[in-house]
Design goal:
Number of strands: 7
Number of domains: 1
Shape: globular
CATH class: Alpha Beta
CATH topology: Rossmann fold
CATH superfamily: Vaccinia Virus protein VP39
Radius of gyration: 15 Å
Helix content: 40-55%
Bound molecules: S-adenosylmethionine
Distance between the termini: 45 Å
Strand order of the largest sheet: 3-2-1-4-5-7-6
CATH architecture: 3-Layer(aba) Sandwich
Order of helices and strands: HHHHEHEHEEHEHHEE
């Protein structure tokens, strides 16, 4: 299957097994395919997270790191201690080749999160939550596990923004006093597919 075939399939995947299988299959061509469409969210979110961070040498988790494109953006933004985790061992194998991560872990969708409160100064989930990847429950689990003061950067693509439950969960976390909103900015995601995303940076209270 070529790149366009994966874009046709990815926003329709359902459940962790289908998601993992799709990304395992996509691993070889993922970076070329998204680069061809101008994938802009990683650099936008990495810069926004760096601008809100007090110390870029403190550890950051690239949750759903895939092949490491998002980790590369975090490096470019100045972060120096980056760990990664992902469902797909094939995507992770590409990330490992980049040698930019301190630690990389394969995780199960319904297994424990790969961190405890206080382990990280920031968690990034770049292109990971919503249509084409993980369900909103992942947002809740990460939000519940972050330690006070920890930054959480994530993005919702246009397909995800069209499903009101995603933004509603963010609003509920903010209104419920769980976190403070530092950044919310709509901009380019995959310009070649005419798709945008909203990036967020929240600080856990
Ligand atoms: C669109 S890719 C983004 C990868 C990388 N962050 C980037 O920006 O290129 C989505 C990634 O999320 C991972 N993923 C999907 N559901 C997940 C879950 N429940 N937990 C962890 N990773 C997940 C997929 O395996 C895939 O590598």
């Amino acid at each position: 299957m070529g790149g366009k075939g994966f874009f046709d399939k990815v926003y329709g995947v359902e459940g962790a097994d289908e998601t993992r299988a799709l990304y395992d299959d996509w691993a070889d061509s993922y970076e070329d395919d998204v680069a061809e469409q101008g994938y802009a969210t990683p650099m936008r979110l990495a810069r926004a997270l760096a601008a809100q961070s007090h110390d870029l040498s403190r550890p950051i988790l690239d949750f759903g790191c895939g092949t490491g494109l998002s980790g590369g953006a975090l490096v470019q933004a100045g972060f120096t201690a980056i760990d990664g985790a992902d469902l797909s061992s094939e995507m992770l194998a590409r990330a490992r080749e980049k040698e930019i991560y301190r630690d990389l872990r394969v995780i199960e969708a319904d297994g424990p999160l790969p961190f405890a409160p206080g382990d990280y100064a920031a968690v990034a989930a770049i292109g990971v939550i919503g249509s084409g990847a993980a369900p909103i429950a992942v947002f809740d689990r990460i939000m519940d596990t972050l330690g006070p003061g920890c930054l959480f950067g994530f993005s919702f693509n246009d397909h995800t923004l069209a499903e009101p439950e995603y933004e509603a969960r963010v609003t509920a976390a903010l209104d419920g006093g769980q976190a403070k909103l530092l950044v919310s900015e709509y901009g380019d995601h995959l310009p070649g597919l005419n798709m945008k995303s909203r990036i967020y940076v929240l600080e856990k209270k």
